[in-house]
Amino acid sequence: MMGRIRHWWVAAGVVVVALGAAATELAVDDGFGSALKAFVAGALAALVAVLALTLPGVDWRGLLLGAFFIGSGVAAWVFMDEPLVIWALIGVQGVFCLIWGWPYLSNLREGVRLGATWLGVAYWVLGVIGALLVFDVGVTAQRVAYAGIAGLAVAAVVGLVRSGADLTVGIVAAFLFALAALLLSGSGNLFETVHTVPPGKWGASFEGRFWGGEYLLYHPNALAGLAVMVAIRVGPDKLFAAWQRLAVTALAGFMVYATNSRTAFVLLVAGGGLHAVMLWWRRRRDIPGLPDYGDTRRTLVAAAVPFLVLALVLIVSGGQGFIFKERYGSGGVTSGRVDTWKFVVDEWKAAPVTDKLFGDTKTARAVVERPGGEGLLLPTDSSAVGSLRRGGVLGVVAFLFGLALLLWHGLAWVIRRGPPAPAWFAMAAIASVPTLALNDWLLGGTGGTFWILLLAGEAYLLARRQAVLPKSRTRAAA
């Protein structure tokens, strides 16, 4: 009876949220058709939040940590012209990490063993050195702040996993709540052909992709990437119910379609392919967490599900038009990425020795302002190129070392003997490789959603291998 009562309350809550979205749209639009679309979008947003609430094993500290990272990422778009708001949120994150990260030196020493630490922190340290060598006080101070926040995040994660906390479920729960909020904010335009982007924001004329709403928005690639990251964490883990694993996979496909994101599509392709490989590999060696679907037919169906979702995305999005369509008026199929990368390399060649070794020193975040870019401060949209821009040659070396270390930890079940990594972490580590040329979310910072998930997963994995975790908190799947 209690279960039925809870179900009724959940259903009522979903309907109330959906009606609120429909009423809001009806108030600003004359058509009942638009209100009906908003009702469906509002219901979807509420169901995504319900999905987050049903996830087992959510640690509130992981939930808060994930909320800080996704919150600062969204704030970077919403408050693009108000950096104090973004810094205030980052400051609150720093306070919590100060509390969680003690003893700092011990935790940071442990953090050096993590590949994710080298990916997301090393370039900030190198950037500080470069700014000091050119005597730029302003850039040095800002980079010290960024490096401090990143280092505190590492110390906090290491300290928390030592106490037995698996932060990753809470992190993806925060991602789901963020997705729910963005879907609700954009409920009036989610199912429209033309999507709303506030005037004056970057991408204001880029209305063929879903960004969220007028007051809460996020870059489409990052938005879809969140959903795919959730699918990678939840989908191949038997800790979660079958319906939850199926739901996150379907959600990932829908968000890829709504945002028209090729970056997230590639990540989902990599995840689906690795899932199929793992199901085949488990015949030779068990992989922790990977569900056992029993007979061959069910296993083949499970392996095919991500590809069916991907096929639907291609069909609904127009097939080759989705893959090869030019997203902007210029820049080609890569949306200007190649032009940005060429510009970064050309500037690096012409830069003084200090910049060659330690990265660009003109701005704190080493953003790119290339000719013909309409004065925009662009990211590199590539973790590999970003490591060169932000950390110079030494940054590239540190990045490659971190990536190799991350893969070494994730692929223990293939390349060496010893306790294998959970299926989801191995999948996430390998799937991150093709995104090196598409997004810079492995470098941490305000867009480092993938980075914080990998950091928390890798830290928990190494702590478990060292038998540091209390037995009562260690999963049976380990």
From TrEMBL:
Q: How does it sit in the membrane?
A: Multi-pass membrane protein
Q: Which residues form a coiled coil?
A: none
Q: Does the keyword Transmembrane apply?
A: yes
Keyword Transmembrane carried by entry: yes
Its keywords, alphabetically, are:
Membrane, Transmembrane, Transmembrane helix
Indicate where this protein resides in the cell.
Membrane
Ranges for domain O-antigen ligase-related come to 248-354
GO CC terms for this protein?
Answer: membrane
Q: Where are the transmembrane segments?
A: 33-55, 62-80, 86-105, 117-138, 144-161, 168-191, 215-232, 239-258, 264-281, 301-323, 392-414, 421-438, 444-463
Q: Residue span of the signal peptide, if any?
A: none
Q: What is this protein called?
A: O-antigen ligase-related domain-containing protein
The source organism is: Virgisporangium ochraceum
